[in-house]
Q: What sequence folds into this?
């Protein structure tokens, strides 16, 4: 088992333990974590697209001088 796989397994086990202690559904927490990952990726992609658009606008503006 690779180091990354062991680390993931450890995190899952810890999450399961905390869910049991706090009587929370593990699947609900996993869905929430996936939603947060998706939100962060979308935000990052929007920022990258904004930077690309800015560079294109700057290049067009430079050519029009």
A:
């Amino acid at each position: 088992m690779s180091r990354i796989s062991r680390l993931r397994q450890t995190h899952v086990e810890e999450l399961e333990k905390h869910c049991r202690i706090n009587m929370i559904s593990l699947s609900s927490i996993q869905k929430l974590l996936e939603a947060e990952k998706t939100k962060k990726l979308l935000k990052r992609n929007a920022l990258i697209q904004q930077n690309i658009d800015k560079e294109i606008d700057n290049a067009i503006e430079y050519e029009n001088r």
In short: Residues 3-63 form one domain. The mean pLDDT is 94. The two ends are 59 Å apart (CA to CA). The chain has one domain: 3-63.
